[in-house]
Amino acid sequence: MPRIDVAFGVQHLAPSDTTGRVVAVVDVLRASTTIAAALDHGARAVIPFESSEEVVTRAKTLERSDVRLAGERKMLPIAGFDFGNSPREFTRETVEGKTVLMTTTNGTPALVAVQAARDVVVASYVNFTAVATMLRAALRGGADVLLLCAGRDRQFSLEDAACAGRYAYHLAKRLSNVVVNDAAVAATLIDRKFGDNLQRLFESSEHGRSLASAGFAEDLAVCAELDRHGVIPVYQDRQITKLGPERER
Questions:
Q1: DSSP at 66
Q2: What is the 3-state secondary structure (H, E, C) of 37-61?
Q3: Using one digit for the tens of pLDDT, what is the confidence trace for 4-27?
Q4: pTM above the 0.70 mark?
C-alpha cells in the first residue's frame, strides 16, 4: 500500500526515510519557485550547493560565460554573484542556455540531503499541477512519496507545510488505499485553512513577513501564482533539469 508522508525539515529524516522513495522538496519562499522559473525560462540546469564556497569552486572549473552564480544568505544576494534568490531575476534573457550554480539558506541543503532517493523533484505552488501529476503516477506505480518541507533555519515554516498539504490532499483524494502520516494530515489541515488565498498565507507566515520587510514583496506575489510554470524539475546526477522529451524517466 503506497504511502504519502510529510516531513517538516531534513533534521527529522533518517536515510531509510528516502531510500527507494520519490521525494518532493518544497521551499516555496523561494528556492523551489526560483528553480522552476529558471528551468522554464531555458536554463540548461540548476546545480544546488550547500555553501557559497562550493559554488565559487565549481564555477572555476567551468567556462564563466556558460554559468550564472545565484544565491542568498539571510534573504539577501551574495556579494559577487550574478543573482540572489528572487524568481523575478531568472528571465529568459538572463538564464537561457546557462547552467545556474545555486546556494540558498534552506532549499539547496534540503536537496543535497536527499539526493540518494530514488527520484527527487522540486515542488512548489508555481508548478503544482505538473509535479502533482508526476507524483500521482509514481504512487499508482507503487512508489512511496515523501513531501519534504525545507523549512526556515531548520524550523517549521507555515508556507512549506501548507504547500505540502495541498499536494498530500490532491494526491490522496484520487487514489484508494493510500496511507498518510500524521504530518501529512496536519499539513492538509493548514492547506484547508488558507485554500487558494496564498497571499494571506504568506502574510501569516514569519518568512513571508520577513521577505516583505526586506523589500521582496513582489517575490511573494510571484510565488503565489499557482501553475505559473508547467515544469517538473528533477534532481539527478547532482543537477536539476527539466523533465520532458529530452529527459524521460
A1: G
A2: HHHHCCCCEEEEECCHHHHHHHHCC
A3: 999 999 998 988 899 999 999 999
A4: yes
